[in-house]
C-alpha cells in the first residue's frame, strides 16, 4: 500500500524527538515537520482514514473523534476524507455546553477529557484518531466518552504507538491501526 508506506517513511524521517519535554524523562515526538510537508501530510491522512473503511473501501463509521490537541489536526481531515462528521474531545472546561467527562492517567500526570453530550448520537459508529498512543489512557477515556453518548468506538487510528509503555493492555479489544510502532 504506497500511501501507508509513504506515511511510515515520512514519520520516521520527519518526526523530531525532543528530550525532557513537557517534563523531565519524557521524549516528546514532535510531528510539526511532518504536518508542514504537504506530501507527507496527505499520505498520513489517507493512511489514518483507512481504519474507517472496510476491505472494499466502504466507509464503516459515522463520525471521527479527535482528541485535543494534536488529534484535532489529524482527525478533522480524516473525517473529510471519509465524508463523515468530526467531533472534538476537549480538555476540561473548554466546551460551552453540557458534556460528559472522564479523568485518566497520562505517562506524565493526570488529565480530564470532555465530549458534548450530543456530540455522538446513540448507535453511531466512531473512529478515534490521535497522534501518539502512549499509555492508552487517552484512548480509553475517549472510548468511555463515546459510550456515554450511546455510540460505539469501532477502532483507533494513530500515527505512532509507544509499545514499550504497553498501551494495548489499557485499550483492550479496541482495534488499533498505527503507522509506526516504537
Automatic annotation (TrEMBL):
InterPro entries: Ade_phspho_trans, PRTase-like, PRTase_dom, UPRTase/APRTase. GO terms for molecular function: adenine phosphoribosyltransferase activity. Pathway: Purine metabolism; AMP biosynthesis via salvage pathway; AMP from adenine: step 1/1. Coiled coil: none annotated. The chain crosses the membrane at residues 71-89. It is found in: Cytoplasm. Keywords: Cytoplasm, Glycosyltransferase, Membrane, Purine salvage, Transferase, Transmembrane, Transmembrane helix. Its EC number is 2.4.2.7. It catalyses: AMP + diphosphate = 5-phospho-alpha-D-ribose 1-diphosphate + adenine. SUPFAM superfamilies: PRTase-like (SSF53271). Residues 35-159 form the Phosphoribosyltransferase domain. Belongs to the purine/pyrimidine phosphoribosyltransferase family. HAMAP family: Aden_phosphoribosyltr. Catalyzes a salvage reaction resulting in the formation of AMP, that is energically less costly than de novo synthesis. NCBIfam families: apt, PRK02304.1-3, PRK02304.1-5. PANTHER family: ADENINE PHOSPHORIBOSYLTRANSFERASE. Homodimer. This is Adenine phosphoribosyltransferase.
